[in-house]
Every structure is written in C-alpha cells, then in structure tokens.
Amino acid sequence: EALAHSWPPGPNLLAQTLCKIREDEEQVLLVAPYWPTRTWFPDLISLAAAPPWKIPLRRDLLSQGMGTIWHPRPDLWNLHVWFLDGMRQTSLAFHRPGPTEMSDCSSAFLPAGEVGAQAVPSTLKVYVAAIAAYYDAVDGASLGKHQLIVRFLRGARRVNPPRPHLVPSWDLSVTLQGLREAPFEPLGSVELKYRSLKTVLLTALASIKRVGDLQAFSVDEACLEFGPGDSHVILRPRPGYVPKVPTTPFHDQVVNLQALPLEEADPASALLCPVRALRIYVDCPRHFRRTEQLFVCFGGQQKGNAVSKQRLAHWVAYAISLSYQNQGEPCPLGVCAHFTRSVASSYALAHGASLADICRAAGWATPNTFARFYNLRVEA
C-alpha cells in the first residue's frame, strides 16, 4: 500500500530535516535524493561538507514487507549519501564567479565522475540551472547563456547524443498475463486499488495516450459513452483541457476503444478488455466520487478526489511491476508510464496496424516522431 501512496515523500520532510541539522549544529550522514531542481537542494548543498557518494543501483535498493515488495523505479530517486555539517557558516554567495570559483561550484553540484561518465545532456542542463541560481548575470546574460557554458553543453550533446531505446525494458506478454490473475481478477470483486491499477494500465496501452491525456478523461455524459452491449467506449477530454503539445488534434479527437472479441480458444483474453475494465471501474466508485475526472484516488483522505498526473504515472509503473511480482519474475528496471506509448505502438505496428492509424491515436503529427523516439524492436 505504501508503494502506491507514499512515493515520493513530501519535500517538506527533508526541508525540516535540514533545518533541524542546522539548528542543532549536528554532523550527520544523510541518505537523500540528488534532485537539483527541488527547493531544498540549495540548503542541502550549503550543509554538505564533502561531495556526495552515489549509492549503487540495485533492484532491491528500496523495499518493504521484509524485502518482499520492491519499489518499481529505484533509479528515479538517484540516492546519494551526504556528509552534512550543521556548523558550517559558509555558503555559496550571490556574486560574479571567477574561473576558479566556477570550477569549485561545478564540483559541488556535479556528482563525482558525472561528466566523465558522460551524463545525459538534459541532466547537465539541470545542473547548470541549479548553479546559475547562485550567481548574478555574467556579461549581461544569465550563467546558462554564457558562451563557455553554451559550448560545453553543445560538446556534451555531441559526445553523448540522445540514444532512444531499441528494445522494451519490460515484456508486454508477461505484463498482460499478470493482469489476468490475482490480485487483478476477478475484477468486479477485487480491492479498488487493484481495479484502478489494471484499468489505468489497460487504458494507457489501448489508447497510446500520455498520462496527461489519461488524466483529462471525464465521466461526464458528454465525455464518456458506452456502446450498445458495451461493444465499445468513447472517451473525450474534459472541456478546457490543454494538452502537452497544443498543436495535437487531441482537442477534438474521440478515443474509441473497441471491446475485445470473446475467443473460444482463449476465453481469458476477455479479461484484458479495456471496455470491460472501464465499465466495472466507472460503476464502482459512484458513491464516493467527488469529481468528474475519470480516474480518482482509491484510498486515504483523498479517496474519491481527482488523481494527479504524477500519481497516475506511478499507478502505471506499479501495475507493470506488480504483474511481474505475481508471477515470480524479477521487476524490470527503468519502468516508466511514458514507455507504454512505445510498447503499445510498436506492438500495434508489428501486428498489422497501419502507421497512420497509430500516429492518429497517439497524437503524433508525422511518422517521424514514432520512428525517432518510440519505435522498438518487438516480435510479432
């Protein structure tokens, strides 16, 4: 339950911890994420008495239940061990940096060996933004626009260009098999938690939509319509929704999901029908639903309220990891919600769907987007 509700923890907890260390003038070893964009990160840097040590990534790095439940994405935490000294009185000041100070500041922000290990250019840009927050403009421009910084980032991109995934990080067949079994079935009587996880994942796979688009779906009569005999379901975004890419046709697009035919050779395939899952899900939380958003929180004080995009993304990743665990398979690393678009669209193409239909469903203006960033090598 904690994996579905408590990750990541509120930033106020870490901010209060740093404040306590400074007030009590303590020296501690703190395990904390390396997240330069968070508001508490400058305080963490100011207390650091030495460069942080990166914790090696393992599948069981974060677990609970006596090691029986693993966190699906330990890599997102980027955990480091920080030696903090609450008696430190010096911190980086807001002033124009010199070459030596720039080097010292960069080493304070960049983990040991990060540049040598060919960090992703987008990550380096985040580090530059964090460093720039400590300094005034240089030669009338922000630090991130300084000619040396621009040349450095350009060179980093040439040395380590983007490398799209070529193969899926998780197996769709294993995931779908896990969704057919407990605790996801029988869907009509399982806990709302597992019903929500399965419905969100099936909807994401069938629609090839972003998490933000999934959050835009509504139970309003104008946005949700089931066909006769639940033969299909029509989903529309709520009025006023602004997609990530404003030029996408999703504003006026109708998402029409067809029910899976009942095959005599494999009757269990009906358990993967997104229309069936949506019908059961919509009918269940009517008595506690507090919003017209399709997907709502299933537990705690927020039960019945609209679920955030971040939580929806976690549901998708958690459902995939849970389907692996239920079959005794190790949880794959690097599971993220956005990757479902790559997996679903690549499998659809491998099984005969036209590229034009795939791009239309996913909201891609041209096939180039699919070819460059989403096309994976999958078996038909």
TrEMBL record:
Keyword rRNA-binding in record: no
Keywords: DNA recombination
InterPro entries linked to this entry: DNA_brk_join_enz, Integrase-like_cat_sf
Keyword presence, Endoplasmic reticulum: no
UniProt GO BP: DNA recombination
Origin: domain of life: Eukaryota
Annotated protein name in UniProt: Tyr recombinase domain-containing protein
